[in-house]
Amino acid sequence: MISIGLLLIRLIIGISFMGHGAQKLFGWFGGHGIEGTGGFFESIGIKPGKQMAIIAGLTEFVGGALFILGLLTPLAAAMIIGTMIIAIVKVHGANGYWVTQNGYEFNLFIIIVALAVALMGAGTYSLDMMIFN
Question: Is residue 132 in a domain?
Answer without folding.
Answer: no
